[in-house]
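We read letters as residues; the fold follows as tokens. Both lines appear below.
***
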Amino acid sequence: MAGVTNTAERTVNDIRRVGIDLAKKVFHVTAVDGRGEVVERKRTRRAGLQSYLTKLPEGCVVAMEACGSAHHWGRLAERLGHEVRLMSPRFVVPYVKSNKNDVNDADAIAEASTRPGMRYVEVKSAQRQHIQQLHRARQLAVKERTAHCNQLHGFLLEYGIEAPKGVGAVLRRLAEVLEDADNELCGNARALLWNLGDELRRLDERVKGFDVQIVRISRETPACQRLEAIPGVGPLSSTALLAAVGEAREFRSGRELAAWLGIVPRQRSTGGRSRLLGISKRGDRYLRYLLIHGARSALRTAKRRSDRRSQWATEVEKRRGTNIAAVALANKNARTVWAVLTQESSFDANYPSRAA
């Protein structure tokens, strides 16, 4: 990228592309003209950035890293008539010149947005962000619920009391223990266990509340209903996928979506020799977890179905085992999700593949 030249002769109307290094309070902007020469480098705060975007000529390319608050600024820029390009931070790193600082980061973002092979992230709507936050809040509640359940198991075992697995079973067992006056629990210990049990009950109700909201959203969304026709995709998976990829038009094929989710083989190929290893495990770990566990559930019932897809999954399980078959089915489900979302079509279990 060229340096700043003849800045006195340049105006805001000459700007064709800006790279913005986002932060909480202080932002750095690099503005570039149509020839790739830097018009200005600017340091601004939140209110100043909003007014700066308003002054840019309509149709200007606004490039940012896909990070915290990027979708908010992307929606604002789109409403002002600009073209927004969000990029993964790891794709911007190769364009950082010299030492890493905010100014060089803004320069690199502006430079990376010109590459023809760059991959961009779709700007999420506020509704999609809400669904994603709902899943993140549920994840945290489930994690805390599991931690409380394990702690209760440990505390009860210290008094020689065994509790069964499962939140409901633990709470029932805890109630029996607290009512038993013949065990060696002292008064303070009973009060502590009662408080822990009450907290576990509260967390369990919170998780169930999130589940109710997610199921309601899936029932009100036609795209989720189409996705849930795929064996192994339920309300959790459908809403999480819709929040993450939208209409999936950023991906050129179903395999690209599967690769983005990290459920395709990792490669170590060189010299014309292809060497495939285990799955790459790239991308969103939560989405991959939902798809693989959903595929495990579908695999258990595949023997009772006679469609082409279930027969294929059963044959893979016989040849390679349950774990590999579950990942293979999750891979196929990811590709099917892409087809259903991009074509806005319904799922057909007997639809012939290209290989067939």
Remarks:
- Residues 155 and 193 are 8 Å apart (CA to CA).
